[in-house]
Amino acid sequence: MITRHELQEAQRYTAARLAEVGIVVTADERDAIEVADFGLSRLEETGLQLLVYVNTDRYCAKELVLMPGQTCPEHRHPPFDGTPGKEETFRCRSGLVHLYVEGEPTPAPACEPPPGAYTVRHEIELGPGEQHTIPPGTLHWFQAGSEGAVVTEFSSASRDDLDEFTDERVARETVVG
Amino acid sequence: MITRHELQEAQRYTAARLAEVGIVVTADERDAIEVADFGLSRLEETGLQLLVYVNTDRYCAKELVLMPGQTCPEHRHPPFDGTPGKEETFRCRSGLVHLYVEGEPTPAPACEPPPGAYTVRHEIELGPGEQHTIPPGTLHWFQAGSEGAVVTEFSSASRDDLDEFTDERVARETVVG
C-alpha cells in the first residue's frame, strides 16, 4: 500500500519526467497516472509509474516511468481469451534501463535485484532510442539506472490483472489518483 | 515518384522534427525513414514521412511526420488474414493535425483537401497530447497545420500494401532510403 501523499509525489515525479522528454499529456491523463508498489510498500525500491495511452482488445501503448534504481519485479504475461498473451516492445526514451529475460545468465550483470524471487538474469541494456521485444509468456524484470528512465511500451492487448509474478508476495496493486 | 534528392531532403526534415520533440532514433532508424508520395509526385502537397518502430503480427507503432499543410490521402484499412483490419490510434505530439473520418460533415472545416477524390468531412482536431482511435474499415484522411505535425500511431498489425485509397490514381508508393 502507498499513502495518498506517496501517490501524489509519484504522479508529480512522473509528469515531470514525461515533460522533460517532451511528452505532452492532458490534465486528465496526468490525474490518471498509475502508481504500482506491487503490494510491497517499498515504492522507490520496487515499483512502477504508468500512463496508459490506449488499451483496446487488440493493442496497447503506455509510458513507463522509473525512479532511479527502481525495479519492476519479475513476471510474465500468460495466455488469455484464446490469445498467446501479451507480447510487448520496450523502447527507451531517456535514461537507462536494464531488462532481464530468460536465457543464458549474463556474467557480471549491471543490476542486483532487490530482495525477493528473481530467477532470470539474461541482461539487455536499453539506452535512448533502443528497444527490445519480449514474446508472450517470457519471464522478465527490469531496473532503471541512476537517473531513472522513461520507457514507451507498445504491445498487444494488456491485462495487468493476469500478470504472474515469481514472488508470491507480489500483487499487481495499482493505485490510480 | 520522388527523386533521390527529394527522399534525402524529406528524411532530413523528418529526423529534425523528431529530434525537436525529443524523440531519439538510432542511425539505422534514421536511414530507414520512409517517404511516401503516393505515386502523385507532389510530395509537399500529398505525402507522408514514417518511422516504423515495430510491426509484429499483433501490433504496430510508428511516428508519422507531416510537412506544413501536407495531406495523407483518403484511405481505409480492409480486413486481412481473418482479422477485421487495422485499428489505429493517432496521438499528436507536436503541431496540429486535422483528421477527417466518416460521419456528419463538419460545417466550415479547417482544411481543404488537395485535388483528388475525398469523400469524408467529419473533422477531428488534434493538438499536442490529444488522440483519436479509428475503427477498422473507416475511410479517413488527414492534413497538418501550418507548422507541420508529429503524430505517433499505435495500432494493430499494419499492412500498408493493402490500403484502399478513394482516389484510384493513388498508390502506396513507399520509398525507403
Q: Main beta sheet of chain A, described?
A: 10 strands, antiparallel
Number of helices of chain A: 2
Shape of chain A: globular
Number of strand elements of chain A: 10
Q: What series of H and E elements makes up the topology of chain A?
A: HHEEEEEEEEEE
Oligomeric form: homodimer
> Radius of gyration of chain A over alpha carbons?
15 Å
Structural class of chain A: mainly beta
State the end-to-end distance of chain A. Answer: 13 Å
β-sheet strand percentage of chain A: 35-45%
Tell me, rounded to a whole number, the average pLDDT of chain A.
95
Q: Which runs of chain A of at least 5 residues are low in confidence (pLDDT < 50)?
A: none
* Helix share, percent of chain A: 10-25%
Largest interface: A-B, 28 and 28 residues
Entry keywords:
177 residues; 2 helices; homodimer
Please describe what this structure looks like.
- Two copies of one chain form a homodimer.
- With 177 residues, chain A is mainly beta.
- The first copy, chain A, has two helices and ten strands, in the order H-H-E-E-E-E-E-E-E-E-E-E.
- In chain A, strands 1, 2, 3, 4, 5, 6, 7, 8, 9 and 10 form a ten-stranded antiparallel β-sheet that branches.
- Chains A and B meet through strand 3, strand 5 and strand 8 of A and strand 3, strand 5 and strand 8 of B.
Summarize the structure.
2 copies of one chain form a homodimer. Chain A is mainly beta.
Topology:
The structure is a homodimer of 177-residue chains.
Chain A lengths: L3 H17 L6 H5 L2 E3 L11 E8 L3 E8 L4 E6 L11 E14 L20 E5 L4 E4 L5 E17 L7 E2 L8 E3 L1
Antiparallel strand pairs in A: 1-2, 1-10, 2-3, 3-8, 4-8, 4-9, 5-6, 5-7, 5-8
